[in-house]
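Entry 14. Ran structure prediction on the chain below.
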Amino acid sequence: MTLPPPLAAHLLTLAAAVAGGFVFALLQVPLAWMIGAMFGTAAVAWFRPAGLAPAVHPAARPAALIVIGLAFGQTFSGPVLAALLGAAPAILIAGFLSIFAGIATMPIFTRMAGTDARTAYFATIPGGVIVMAVLAQREGAPLAPVTLAQTLRVLVVVLVMPPLLSAIAPHGDYSAFVAPRLAFDGWGLAGMLAVGSVAALLLRRTGIANPWMIGPCFLAITAAAFGQLPSAVPGVLIDAAQVGMGAGLGQKMTKDFLLGARRLMRAALVSSLLLCLFCTVFGAGLAWAMGLPPSAVMLGMAPGGMPEMGVTAKALGVAVPLVLAFHLTRTLLCNFLLGPIYRGLVALGLFRPHGSA
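Output, structure tokens:
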């Protein structure tokens, strides 16, 4: 029996993503299920066996983010929140340093990509793919190069930071940022997933970027802080969520995507690597100055997306709440500050709202 092409494409993509994750897990690659699924799906996107393009269901990433948000939120007990409050100055400084590091790479990106400063502003600052695309659209910046550059940055960071941190970063003492393990309860988990989905849908109505993760995460944080979480999120479900996220990233790695804008891709690759270097150095210095675990601060400042870096922290055994606090703070700073900063630079004549600067 011949399967309908849409169903065949979905099944082929799922099989490639799971197979990639399984192989990378056997090889003990950091972030195996996400990176493996990304490469497996990218292979389908590149070679298109039987003429089938990769197909990932639109609900896959939101569902994965709901699971990841609940898994992250369960790590925030009352004592952990108190420890994070003590680290708040370092977390806030790191957010501004990350934005500064992105701005520092703008001249290189502009020169290599041949874009104007306005495009480079939204393409280089590590605020997250969705957040920066929304902000760029609000300010009238071209959306395609911004989305491409931000997506490539996440891919670079996902591939570079786990092995880099495994090789060079001392772990330090995470005990203050580790919550007690919860027991698994099937009905409790079902309730968490249902309520988390409702929280995500409600938060989506506010227009905030990435409601699928932030809504369930804040819900789980609140419940965990009061000791009311009914169940742990099992590891197999987290691995499945990684597969969904990796497949979503790999789906974009088509020949047209990778070969159609080579100049922009080179600029995004070089600026992303420089951004990783800047943030790693800043993170090491900040950890030393503030007496925080170096690997957690470096990962917290890494210019990747919040879901990807949170999963990386969990895979590497780094303090997930501390890493998430860094990324959540940077995301909020970008949401509220980058638009006014851009308009201020335009008013000062440093950027031109239309054309090169």
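Residues 5-347 form a domain with the Na+/H+ antiporter like fold fold (CATH 1.20.1530). Will compare against last week's run tomorrow.
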